[in-house]
Amino acid sequence: MSRFPYLRQDFAASIVVFLVAVPLCVGVAVASGVPAELGLVTGIVGGQVTGLMRGSSLQVSGPAAGLTVLVFEAVSEFGVAALGLIVLMAGLLQLAMGYFGIGRWFRAISVAVVEGMLCGIGLVIIAGQIYAAAGLKAPETGIGKIVGLPGAFTDAFGSTKALTSLAIGAGTVAVIVLWKKLPKAVQSVPGALAAVLLATLSSLAFSLPVATVKVEGLLGVIQPPGADAFGELASPALWGTIIAFALIASAESLFSAAAVDRLHDGPRTQYDKEMIAQGAGNTVCGLLGALPMTAVIVRSSANVQAGAKTKASRVLHGVWLLLFAAALPSALALIPLPALAGILVHAGWKLIPFRQVAELWRGHRGEALILIVTAVSIVAVNMFEGVLIGLALAVVKTAWEASHLKTEVIDKGTGPIQVYLSGNATFLRLPKILDSLEALPQDRPIEVDLSGLHHLDHACRTALENWAERHSAPDTDPVKVTTAEPMEATTP
């Protein structure tokens, strides 16, 4: 017992995490367009492979709502058979990034882009799962899902079956939201699990006409990538998806690790090792043909709040998932699909950073704009290109702010006109600099003081030299430039 001083706390926490994980694993799989058991396979690997490795001791990994949209797009384009290959290659890419020390650099990604990514994902998940809750077929594009919602509600209210299905989905969301207001003793059962159980019992008791989860058996859904699948690696589109899986899963995992570190006083996350652990887990998931994994903040926070002290809790939760998938697979067939859609709608809602948007709008409107553009781009285009648009906008904003320049002109009426430049003089500000200088009179001596500049790039230096050479009239003293380094045009 001395070797496992926290076994009691970790055992209790593992049960809580298991109960939280079951409906989420199944819900994410169904929403991704793959058999429900594949979600459980990824949860098992997240517990027993990634859970055993070093990195973040209390973070729990498994299938995540944040990758649902990307997985669904990949399955729609390449098929379920190619999913294993995509996840396998993404895992190997994560391993390489971890070994080469790239994991820590993910902390440098703009928070606005990450929040925008989660917001866009959340909007697409909510819109798509409303169709699933009503038992209707959703449009393929994100913008199509949102634009088509009024028509979907009209169709649902005209069909008793669709209305019943939608009511179960709405009831699931209501139970999850209201569950937190019940006594602490009741809340020992996770709200999502309670909602699924109540929805299942209700549909059975009243024989409600709703679709349920299709069960194929754990061994029946495991499909390792075949030799033919590797031939698909010649496709640039497939590599785009692989890179998107690797980068987005890594970013979500490492940002989750930073959030989990704030919840406990234990060992801090070792980012490169966590990247390796995530890569190892995704490599195994790929070999099994399962869903990709990330660290999941819902399960991780439940793990911490349940009193977990070591990685044993997440490993044990993987054991319970394995036992459940092996011994009770038929129980999945009783779960109504609209209940799982309700869980995903709630998960998508929690991905939308309402508070962060408001705070950024008050203090950093440029960052708020990046967040909004990233989210809208993901909805309008797709996940990968939306994130790239957000990152490009963040780089442009940073470059613009880094080139902040102040120009001050002092004219006392007599004597030379004094011009002071301070800040960063880069080519982005060159038009402003030249507009100010060329507006100065040519028949007056001019002194330009550049000592306040932190940076003067080659384009600005060359432009200033050319301006100084040709500005002064023939009978006027040449422009005098003061700087930390002598400039060629300062002499007559």
From TrEMBL:
Keywords: Membrane, Transmembrane, Transmembrane helix. The keyword Signal does not apply. The keyword Transmembrane applies. This is Sulfate transporter. The chain crosses the membrane at residues 12-34, 78-102, 109-132, 162-179, 191-211, 237-260, 319-349, 369-396. PANTHER family: SULFATE TRANSPORTER. It is a multi-pass membrane protein. Residues 469-492 are annotated as: Disordered. One of its GO terms (cellular component) is membrane. Residues 469-478 have a biased composition (Basic and acidic residues). GO terms for biological process: transmembrane transport. It holds the Pfam family Sulfate_transp. It is found in: Membrane. Residues 7-374 form the SLC26A/SulP transporter domain.
